[in-house]
Amino acid sequence: GSGDFTSDSQSENSLAKTLETRSDKCSKNLNRPLSDENSTNAVRSYIGTDNTNMQVKGANSDAFRVSVSSALSSSSQGSAQDDCDAFGDVYIWGQIFCDASLLNGNVVTPRTDLLLPRSLDSNLVLDVHAVSCGGRHAALVTRQGEVFTWGEESGGRLGHGVGMDSSQPQLVELFTTCNADFVACGEFHTCAVTMAGDLFTWGDATHTAGLLGHTSEVSHWIPKRVCGPLEGIQVAGLSCGTWHTALITSTGQLYTFGDGTFGVLGHGDRTSVPFPREVESLKGLKTIAVACGVWHTAAVVEVIVTQSSVTTSSGKLFTWGDGDKNRLGHGDKEIWTVPTCVPSLIEYNFHKVACGHNLTVGLTTSGRVFTMGSMVYGQLGNPRSDGKVPILVEDKLANESIEDISCGSYHVAVLTSRNEVYTWGKGANGRLGHGDIEDRKTPTLVEALKDRHVKHISCGSNFAAAICLHRWLSGMDQSQCSACRQTFGFTRKRHHCYNCGHVHCHSCSSKKALRAALSPNPGKAYRVCDSCYFKLNKISEAGGPSSNRKAILPRLSGDNKDKLDRPENRTSKSELVECIDFKTEKHGKRPDSLSVLPSQMANSLQLKDFSVSSTVTNAVHKPVNVPLKSGINSAAVSPFSRKSSPRRSVTPVPTTGGISFSKSIADALKRTNELLTHEVQKLQAQ
């Protein structure tokens, strides 16, 4: 009874002090110079450019400040985000794909509507760095560089190599060997960019020519690297439309590919292009953001402006494609086949853009939001709009500074500098997150996320997602248990979960687990709620993330990415296949259970030439469990300094760089390779 409560109170006070120390460490990064790199639909950093001071809301005496750098730092110490222990969680709402066993009755498709944001169901504890929502699927990138996808499978867009739906995030095997930086989802395909700046695409390419950028209409069920015109070029921004894709290089060049109907590719004609092609009319200009709709495209382009003999650069909004419903903002409904500046917004400096089906949304550097397009469902966010010209979204946003924007088919979500989420537009399926299905014609606060520290938002066609930071919630402001909803009182005491940070009663948080996200010492068991205990315990029973999860790697920008782009640092295709095969055997999967096309199997799974080097290199990723020598630093080292980056993950995995293979391990690897080669030959024969 009382003894247990006293012990827990002391432990929780220790946690609060630990978090305050972490936040103080993060606050030191506020005075660091920031780079000029801006974010797009999918970019290197999801924090808004003006977001340098985020205050946790709803906290009193035990509140702490989380200060996160908005962009990748130009200092030698790396970005503030890399120096701050901020564990990312995903919340989703709207129409989602779920486990059919959870639904009553016979259903054709296991979909359900979430009217309020809810934590994403997952059997793993994922430290989420980026998330993207598509038509009926979604993808996320962890801080370790892994890619997980879930939703309805169609034509291979989940990237798992099998035609099975997934109600929970499942690992895309390829990204256990190369580290992803960000992802983007379309209606039928998915794209990911690695830390080296390489573009991988996968999904259904049978609907339109060149949707995946591989010069063919062949669908790909596993990620494939886009080569050709992008060879030696680093991708820094990405957006997926329904029928086309646009990307921005590290030097600001804009490339598009896919269906060219309505001139949506911006090449001056309506011809489809099956491979990435640079937009000629923007050559010599720097594109800093791009967004793809169904039949239109929008981009923010940096131009040189001279006023009163002072020359400055300013982001201008360019649109092209189908001008129906005034979605291009040019005051007409004509088709524009080349990027054209929106004349009525020439006075403003933009840095982000988003597109819906017949809607375009632009965000200025001062935090103002402009919309243009159809007035249907109130998606313009301003009832006074006639839909003919772009209009400023005001009402509840009048006194807010907006940091991030995202569009679904007919709804919009924005993130303020106070980490609050506002939505408006079509409310069907609960996609606005207000607990109902009513449309909203003006921005409305998502109350369910008010006590969360939201750092990024993403809208799919009829659902949405948000990345929230794990943090210590104020127990004084919460009167009910987060799990059983019973009111706290004299006999029902408050206890914090050391993994999710939420407040629970003793009955709902009586267990302890290792590797909790907010624990001061990952090697010691701390109190967690029942839900987190189940997740953490499941990982331990499976052998622990150390056996199949990667260590958190530093995220690079600018010239530092050139080092990764060198030929000697790239992982060859054969090495990727070998690593995937090792992982397959390691997890006990039967080779004949893999749903891979025979032609792909014959061409790809060639392990006869595999050789074991004397040391572990970047080309070989954990084919076996290698014991660490004592004294080896397990923290990821920042490329900007000699100082080790702080541990990010719930379960950090020690790196194995520089550790030599013993002869016994080399022999074991050779025997394993021979056995696997034999299994592959049997599978090919079958």
Automatic annotation (TrEMBL):
Basic and acidic residues compositional bias, start-end: 558-572
SMART domains in the record: FYVE
Single GO molecular function: zinc ion binding
Keyword Zinc-finger: yes
UniProt protein name: FYVE-type domain-containing protein
InterPro entries from the UniProt entry: RCC1-like_dom, RCC1/BLIP-II, Reg_chr_condens, Ub_ligase/GEF_domain, Znf_FYVE, Znf_FYVE-rel, Znf_FYVE_PHD, Znf_RING/FYVE/PHD
Composition-biased stretches (Polar residues): 1-16, 28-37
One Pfam entry name: FYVE
Bias (Low complexity) ranges: 638-649
Region described as Disordered: spans on this chain: 1-37, 544-572, 637-657
Keyword annotations of the record: Metal-binding, Repeat, Zinc, Zinc-finger
Occurrences of domain FYVE-type (ranges): 475-537
Domain of life: Eukaryota
SUPFAM superfamilies linked: FYVE/PHD zinc finger (SSF57903), RCC1/BLIP-II (SSF50985)
Annotated RCC repeat ranges: 88-144, 145-196, 197-251, 252-303, 315-366, 367-418, 419-470
Lineage: Eukaryota, Viridiplantae, Streptophyta, Embryophyta, Tracheophyta
